[in-house]
Amino acid sequence: MLEGYSPVTQALLGTLFTWGLTALGAATAIFLRGNQRKFMDISLGFAAGVMLAASYWSLLEPALEMAAGLATYGENGQWAFVPVSVGFFLGAAFVFGADLVMSSIGVGSSPLDLIDKKVEPDSESPLPEQEPQFQMNGESGLRLRRVGAGSEVVSIGEQEREDEIKKRSSWRRIMLLIVAVTVHNIPEGLAVGVGFGAIGRTKSATFESARNLALGIGIQNFPEGIAVSLPLKAAGFSTAKAIWYGQLSGLVEPIAGVLGAALVSFIVPLLPYALAFAAGAMVYVVVDDIIPEAQSEGNGKAASWGAIVGFIVMMSLDVALG
Asked: What is the pTM of this model?
């Protein structure tokens, strides 16, 4: 974000900054240790609060203002709700369709089923520490038998199938969360690009205003990186994977920013639809996936307070930096 460069270069630098803060937020997963179901539910609640606040103050409110400023939707903007409603519905439908597609290709049964369901041994009959012995069974194939008190038989084929289902469920959950946050970041990247591309076109379109927009969106992206990486880390994903998927959601912003700066005259009329589309996608994921999962394991109160904190944090950033 250096004055004197071309709008496209400025937009690229500005959106690289916003992506960097997303990655910095995702990096907070470094400080979380272990597989903690309760912390996962609190993190999911926090993510839900962040996404709900962002859907209004970062997306719906500016979408309505932009649509009201276009003569297409009435002299006083009385029809500004039309493009916003259409975009909101299409965003929700997009995530619903993505969920159906992932289900149809067999990617798990629950988008947030991240916790491995481990079989706990009977405390009254603990398993002795002995080397496993393999035996062949004509009906069920290769089985693993532990010999001794409380012996049990575990089918290797069944265990492999269970592990595969868990992996696919985890991947589907990751995809839905990343899709929602990524879709939200596309119009933000476009907005930064349009801000730099529009410099000089009106009195209010200045380098300072575009720079401040990039700074504001970047700071808002910090809790969004947290919202993606912490639930993944708490669910048992490695630190590297949690950070990788967390920053991945913001990587689309530089691409969108460059496009916004290069195609500013074409992008502006579409921004109300794009912003509302992202809001619809986020709200659908929160209501259909994140909140039900956060409430499913007896940590509902803690998850609800996590959502309140996330909402306040994101609202405060949006309003203070808006």
From this structure: 0.64
